[in-house]
Amino acid sequence: MTDCIFCKIANHEIPSNIVYEDDVVIAFLDLSQVTKGHTLLVPKKHVADIFEYDEELAKDVFSRIPKIARAIERSSDDILGLNILNNNRSIAYQSVFHSHIHFLPRYEDSDSDGFGLKWKTHEGKYSTAELAAVIAAIKENLED
């Protein structure tokens, strides 16, 4: 895709702070640095979101997550945890429409200033029948 910033980074057309690269993916520091070391893992093949992955690309991209996560963890004795996020479509806060995975090192509780992952639980809101219908619909749509 010609106007995709992540394609341009993957093709080395614009500068980036690369932390890892191979024939399938490129990982680089996010300009926003939500926390120090905030890294993005991007497939070199342009896919807009998880819904465009085939099984092989998913295997290739997602199998690299532990390697990148361990490298980030080992990069600083101050890292206490790590969020790994993948947003898909604008309703889910995807802002660049080339699939990417965020790695957000966590250093302390105050990291949540300006960044949070808290959601309200709806436990007990849905009946057993409603949940059974959700399960059936998902199972019916699984691909082999």
Automatic annotation (TrEMBL):
Protein name: Histidine triad (Hit) protein
GO terms for MF: catalytic activity
One GO BP: nucleotide metabolic process
UniProt-annotated catalytic positions: 100 (tele-amp-histidine intermediate)
Domain called HIT: residue spans: 5-114
InterPro entries membership: HINT (IPR039384), Histidine_triad_CS (IPR019808), Histidine_triad_HIT (IPR001310), HIT-like (IPR011146), HIT-like_sf (IPR036265)
CDD domains in the record: HINT_subgroup (cd01277)
Extent of motif Histidine triad motif: 98-102
PANTHER family noted in UniProt: ADENOSINE 5'-MONOPHOSPHORAMIDASE HNT1, HIT FAMILY PROTEIN 1
